[in-house]
Amino acid sequence: MRQPFRVPAYAGDFPDPTILWSKGRYWAFATGSAGRNLQVMGSTDLRTWSEPVDPLPRLPAWVAPGHTWAPGVMEVDGRYVMYYTARDASRGVQAISVATATAPGGPFTDVSPAPLVCQTAGSIDPNPYLDPRNGRLFLIWKSDDNALGQRTRIWGQELGAGGLGFAEGTAPALLLSGSAAWQGPVVEGPTVIGNGATYYLFYGANRWDSAESGIGYATSDSLLGRYTNRSRFRPWLGSSGHARGPQGPMVFEDAAGRARMAFASWHGAVGYPNGGARVLWIGTLGFERGGAPAIGPGAVGAGDSGEEPPGRA
After folding, report:
1. Beta-carbon neighbour count of residue 12 at 10 Å?
2. Which residues of 189-220 are buried (b: 16+ CB within 10 A; e: fewer)?
3. In terms of DSSP bridges, do strands 38-43 and 198-205 run parallel, antiparallel, or are they unpaired?
């Protein structure tokens, strides 16, 4: 049985986390806090972290400050590529841009003259995925349809060499649309992992500023195919222990090659006006017989110390 989440991996405000293992350290990135555009901090053990700093101190001219969030970072051809959400000042909607750095902690530089992705309603929450089956790089993101009062959708498209643009001749593929009642107004923050012949797309849903936020998942036999929502009636991971309203899932591999999931949730009070913070949690991700994903334990930040087999969520 899944153990409740009790102790966060990092207790400071750290929404929409992404974690990368590189050069003997973990690098955790997140939405900005305390006046930073974004955040990055380092650790050797996923428990003790350096003080967060801003990995993207300067924004390109087309970006309106104060609306940057949800970075997704990957090492590509010896350099580090960051995809992040920013406000297109000319259109007044959220968009996705890309920045690069020579070191995992930055500083990252964005010299783009325009967004990488900006759909009609806006585009947010980018996450890169390197498919181990074929070595190709993809970007997964959410269209900001809820800004127009519509149900949100998750998209994917193959990236070209170097990861700074999309592969020639490709177009965005619709992966998943919000439909379940518990998802509320949004599905967002997508992240992908393959297991066997199946791709698993994890997502956050419902209102991020409430305890009703949760994480669901969907499956497909094709990375850019249509996904079947497997969390039809309730979240796969809802509020658990001291983690209230889980959101912003991100799958990564630790130094030993084990699959982990980072996510944020409210710890203590729910909502910034109430003095709450969206803190960082890290769990171990596994798959049961039959393919159901499981998040657990001894997972850093999951509660009791020590490793235990994952339990079904």
Report:
1. 18
2. bbbbbeeeeebbbbbbbbebbebbbbbbbbbb
3. unpaired
pLDDT at 2 (0 to 100): 64
C-alpha 244: how far from chain center: 17
pLDDT at residue 177 tops 80: yes
Query: 151, 226, 139, 152: which is closest to 191 by C-alpha?
Result: 139
pLDDT at residue 96 in the model: 98
d(CA 219, CA 176): 10
* CA 147 to centroid of chain Cα atoms: 20
The model's pTM: 0.94
- 28, 18 Cβ separation under 8 angstroms: yes
pLDDT tens track for 110-166? 999 999 999 999 999 999 999 999 999 999 999 999 999 999 999 999 999 999 999
In degrees and rounded to multiples of 5, residue 264 shows phi and psi of: -115, 155
Which residue ranges form the domains of the chain, and what is each CATH number? Answer: 18-296 (2.115.10.20)
CB atoms within 10 A of CB 91: 14
pLDDT at 6: 87
Gyration radius (Cα) of the chain, Å? 18
